[in-house]
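Retro notes (design track)

What went well: tokenization of the new backbones is finally stable.
What didn't: we kept losing track of which sequence belonged to which structure.
Fix going forward: every design gets posted as structure first, then sequence, in one message. First example under the new rule, 243 residues:
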């Protein structure tokens, strides 16, 4: 390639790669990149690492619901615990760590049946954060164990589960779906703010079993950005007495 053509190609690539943010995006702070996750789901953020909590040191109200069993389509039984954070204040990175401290992991969804069971645990509106008019009153629900490592093709590439199990099922929200009263496009994942790399239930105007992608720092305690979630779901692969 000649120098001139190479330069032209470089400019074209820069134009194509430049993010376009014509309107406020769902579920995230203003654009600008920011922290990311490695392939194992660990935070990459040297400047402002998420504070690491235990259940005893979380600085916000937190309520752990009784774990419920569910027999998966393959016959195994797992247990699911909803952690309710009525004021938010726990981001995905922190929720992941708490789930692991508890002996489980953030819930991983491998079938429509498992998704329906987990959604049933969190469908009460108390588990849902509702935006104000600036975001057309869209709601988002608890965090799940899906994430997208640094370098993945946006917005659909590279999605993984915290357990490393195969990504065989997904249930992203879509434009015009039941409950979508927001005139903005709602197809997920959309990497709307250029930094959305974790999964939570959402995100239309009512509680729904579909998913959206959100920033890993979404809902951080005392963040100036108002969005948050009101919980997360822990999945255990052994019975409560066995852990
Ligand atoms: Ca699972
Ligand atoms: Ca999104």
């Amino acid at each position: 390639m000649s120098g001139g053509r190479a330069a032209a190609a470089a400019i074209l690539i820069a134009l194509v790669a430049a993010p376009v943010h014509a309107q406020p995006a769902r579920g995230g702070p203003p654009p600008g990149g920011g922290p990311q996750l490695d392939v194992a789901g660990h935070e990459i953020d040297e400047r402002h690492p998420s504070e690491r909590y235990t259940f005893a040191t979380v600085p916000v109200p937190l309520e752990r619901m009784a774990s419920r069993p569910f027999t998966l389509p393959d016959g195994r039984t797992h247990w699911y615990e909803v952690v309710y954070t009525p004021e938010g204040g726990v981001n995905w990175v922190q929720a992941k760590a708490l789930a692991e401290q508890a002996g489980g992991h953030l819930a991983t969804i491998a079938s429509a049946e498992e998704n329906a069971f987990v959604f049933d645990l969190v469908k009460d509106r108390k588990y849902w954060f509702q935006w104000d008019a600036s975001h057309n009153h869209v709601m988002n629900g608890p965090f799940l164990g899906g994430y997208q490592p640094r370098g993945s093709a946006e917005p659909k590439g590279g999605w993984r589960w915290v357990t490393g199990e195969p990504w065989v099922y997904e249930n992203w929200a879509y434009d015009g779906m039941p409950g979508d009263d927001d005139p903005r496009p709602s197809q997920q994942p959309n990497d709307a703010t250029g930094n959305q790399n974790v999964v939570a239930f959402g995100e239309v105007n009512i509680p729904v079993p579909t998913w959206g992608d959100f920033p890993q720092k979404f809902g951080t305690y005392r963040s100036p950005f108002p969005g948050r979630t009101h919980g997360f779901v822990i999945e255990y692969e052994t019975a409560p007495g066995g852990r």
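Added context from the reviewer: The chain has one domain: 57-242.
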